[in-house]
Every structure is written in structure tokens, then in C-alpha cells.
Amino acid sequence: MASFIGMAFIPYYKQLMEILATNPDLRASAKGIFKQVAYGACGTAIGGCVGGPPGALVGGIAGSVLGYWQSDDYDSLLKVLYSLSDSEKAKLVQKVQELVGGTGIEALTRFIGNQAQREVLLHLIRNFSKDPQGG
């Protein structure tokens, strides 16, 4: 019975992950990855046309560096969150519920209805993902 009660945060956590997986802000990170790869590929092609194989190497490196500078930070937030331990998941759920001001999934759904609140939620989650122990 204690195990069942201890896992009460799991449905909330699953709903939170579903929201994060379908959030347009997170989808934008995939565009950042594509953009960075495109810079590297273009640099390689241009360098190869201009300087042959050594030019392709230099162009690829230059394009990759330029792409890195042009793209946003896109650490795989979902991957980090999916790999949290149960105690870290519970801690994340607690922090989100405190922010949202309720423990129900309905409160979370209402909260993310506002763009500014979505950004605050994502900020909290990004900060948590960088230091789950410190929260």
C-alpha cells in the first residue's frame, strides 16, 4: 500500500511530459538542431568546391562553428527529464504543483493556457533539469 501511495505523482508526471513533448517551444529546439546541421553541410560543400578535400574539412568545421553560434541551447530536455529517478520526478512534480498553485492535472492544463505562464513553467523545468538534486 505504501508503494502505491508513494507513486501517486506518476500520472501528473506523465501528463507533464506529454505537455512538454507537444509544446511548440520545445519543438523549436528541433529546428535549431536542423539549422546547425545545415550550416555544417553547407560549409563542407562550399569548402569542398573551393579547396577540394582539405577545403571540405575546413569548410565543415567553419560551418559547424557558425551553426553552433547561430543556434540556441538545445540540450535534450525531454531526455534529461525521462531519465530522472523516481525521487527526482516527485520533486519536479512538487515544484510544478507549487508553481501552478494546485495538485490537479486540470490546474496544470489551465496554467499552461497562458503564454507567459508556459514560459515560466519551462524556465522552472529547464533550471530543474540542470540540477535535479538542488532543485
Automatic annotation (TrEMBL):
Family according to the record: Belongs to the C19orf12 family.
Superkingdom, taxonomy of origin: Eukaryota
Species in which this protein is naturally found: Mytilus galloprovincialis
InterPro entries, alphabetized: C19orf12
Protein name stated in the entry: Uncharacterized protein
PANTHER family listed in its UniProt record: NAZO FAMILY MEMBER (PTHR31493), PROTEIN C19ORF12 (PTHR31493:SF1)
Pfam family membership, one: C19orf12
